[in-house]
Amino acid sequence: MSNDRTLSEEIKYQLRFGGMHIRLIFANSLVFILMILLDLATRTTGNMWINIVRIKIFALQTNLGDFIYAPYGLITSIFTHFGFMHFLFNMLFLYFAGSLFRQFFSDRRMLHVYIVGGIFGGFCELIAHQISGMDAIVVGASGSIMALFIAIAFYRPNITINLFGLLPVKIYVI
Fold first, then answer.
1. Intra-chain end-to-end CA distance of the chain, in Å
2. Strand (E) or helix (H) holding 60
């Protein structure tokens, strides 16, 4: 962050000139803040309908009956996190995967891979839950982030990544 910019100016600057991964982190962050506010509203008012609406709109329903009425969950769920640690680790991985992705591909391609990878991950979740017979709600950007890693691994399979800054590993291993 430049010493000349305020926090709000830095946010505007990053949204304008930062990479797509920065914009995706901002989008995920805004949805996460909304989830916190909706959860807080549920707890303070005792109105469980707020929580039900939050889940019906922002989560992927793996019950096929519910999914048919809310297929948009394939998209909304890839920007939604209910827990802080889940959100934090997904955003860290998004930052690192996005930074690496930008070395080889465009921001537009990153957005496409992120969205399509998340949708594919959502369909995999639907299939897995149909096979297991379990119903659940699914949220998180994990499928989208893994799609970024997979795209890099197919494009440059022998690139070495230092896990935790210490352990050199080929990306295809990850």
1. 31
2. strand 60-61
CA angle, residues 155, 142, 124, in degrees to nearest 5: 85
Q: Which two tokens stand for residue 54?
A: 């939050």
Decide: helix, strand or coil at residue 119. helix
CA atoms within 13 A on the CB side of 117: 21
pLDDT of 82: 93
Least Cα distance to 110 among 4, 27, 45, 52 occurs for 27
Residues 60-101 have pLDDT tens digits of: 999 998 999 999 999 999 999 999 999 999 999 999 999 999
157 vs 154: CA distance, rounded Å: 6
Task: Kindly indicate the confidence band of residue 4, based on its pLDDT and cuts at 50, 70 and 90.
Answer: confident
Amino acid found at 173: V
The 10s digit of each residue's pLDDT in 149-172 is 999 999 998 888 887 778 888 888
Residue whose C-alpha is closest to residue 161's, from 88, 90, 94, 97: 97
Question: What is the distance between the alpha carbons of residues 25 and 82, in angstroms, rounded to a whole number?
Answer: 15
